Amino acid sequence: MNLLLLLRSVFVPICLFCLSLLLSFNNARLPDLITPISSPTTTITTNANQPISPIFAATVQVVSPGMMKNNHHMNKRILIALIVVSCALCAILSTLFCLWIFRLKKKSHKSDSKSVQRADTVRGLSLGTISGKFNSIRRISKKGSVSIIEYQLLEAATDNFSESNILGEGGFGCVYKACFDNNFLAAVKRMDVGGQDAEREFEKEVDLLNRIQHPDIISLLGYCIHDETRFIIYELMQNGSLERQLHGPSHGSALTWHIRMKIALDTARALEYLHENCNPPVIHRDLKSSNILLDSNFKAKISDFGLAVISGSQNKNNIKLSGTLGYVAPEYLLDGKLTDKSDVYAFGVILLELLMGRKPVEKMTPTQCQSIVTWVCIGSNFSSDMNCFLEL
Asked: Which superkingdom is the protein from (predicted)?
């Protein structure tokens, strides 16, 4: 609006002035071109003995040198004025154009910044803003620093750890839904430390998640230590765990074939990163459907690194046998041999869960259980069930 007013107040008067100069310039030159001048003239005649040509029959009149000089000075002044006005007009237009471009870039930059901030908030990636609201004290680890979050902030965000905010439970404790300022949501894992093993798992998970950065692995926001209780704060995954989606009340109704394939690919990429791209490589050691979390778009991320170990640093004499029944590889269960193939075996069990919708271990009789691997190997209905599933 300001630029339009400036154009109206400056550009239009300059154009009118230039137009008037041009008109005056033409009016000054026009009489010289078409009006006879009664000044001293020179008459061209022919010899009396020669015939007069029709071309030279008329009299030719020539303008005097004084009049031509005056007209020349007037035309020169008008030309100089036109040049000056044109230069001034070009300078003004260039300035206005630069101001217009600058204003457009400024507006575009502001809109881009707002859209980026809005997208980060929706995806749960605006960790810098949230970290600024947390305690500025940071814990230095081997590969960086981690935000320390005040216990009072966690209490307020979880409504004093209300049961209505519980997202899940496990042997370690509970996971709560936390709502911080600006409606930023996060997951708070509460661990009641009762010994050295629990403390070691807490330290290991914080250090590993702080070192590992991958889109298919859960993001660490911070941690808190309050008396004998430890808290780890993650990004919130709105659709919960894969176990809940498959074996919960919905029985996998929201998981289409395309979504199940996407979950399998996301999990495979995370394992590939842990085994091939981490330095040193990491073995998760407790991969299962309850540790695969899903966001609002059903993107899968691996979580719970409390039992993870560094590849090459373990052997069967100093590593406690750990894992979940149904996901533990036979060679690890029988011989204590732990390698990255143990995670691959657990991943295969998860693939069977995605394909068949069965639990990794199901009770057949009050005294007998059967794993999904055994059921697939000896079951006669596997092919028919697979065909029914692929038709979905």
From this structure: Eukaryota
Residue ranges at the known binding site for ATP = 189
Residue 32 confidence class, pLDDT cut points 50, 70, 90: very low
CA nearest to 267, candidates 253, 287, 250? 287
Query: Average pLDDT over the chain, rounded to whole?
Result: 75
Q: Are 159 and 165 in contact (CB under 8 A)?
A: yes
Say how far apart CA 30 and CA 79 lie, in whole Å.
Answer: 16
Domain boundaries, the chain: 2-123, 127-235, 242-390
The reply to whether the predicted model has a pTM over 0.90 is no
User: What is the three-class DSSP state of 379?
Assistant: coil
Catalytic residue numbers, as ranges: 286
Across the range 78-105, mean pLDDT stands at 76
Cα(28)–Cα(73) distance, rounded to whole angstroms? 12
Domain 242-390 indexed as CATH 3.90.150.10: no
Cα–Cα dist 261/214, whole Å:
19
Task: Name the residue with higher pLDDT: 363 or 299.
Answer: 299
List all residues 6 or more positions away from 135 whose beta carbon is below 8 Å from its beta carbon: 147, 148, 149, 150
- For 134-161, what is each residue's pLDDT tens digit? 544 444 444 456 788 889 999 999 999 9
Q: Report d(CA 150, CA 225) in Å as an integer.
A: 9
Question: Whole-angstrom Cα distance, residue 358 to residue 354?
Answer: 8
Angle made by CA atoms 142, 147, 153, in degrees to the nearest 5: 155
Asked whether 95 and 3 are in contact (CB, 8 A), the reply is: no
Residues near 118 by beta carbon (within 8 Å), at least 6 away in sequence: none
Q: Helix, strand or coil for residue 229?
A: strand
273-277: long-range pairs with CB below 8 Å, 24+: 273/212, 273/214, 273/216, 273/217, 274/212, 274/217, 274/302, 274/340, 274/343, 275/311, 275/340, 275/343
Cite the annotated binding site by residue number.
189
The half-sphere exposure of 105 on its side-chain side, counting CA atoms within 13 A, is 6
Query: Which CATH fold topology does 127-235 show?
Result: Phosphorylase Kinase; domain 1 (3.30.200)
C-alpha distances in Å from residue 208, one per residue of 75, 201, 274, 305, 375: 85, 10, 11, 7, 36
Name which of 186, 191, 193, 192 is nearest 165 in CA terms: 186
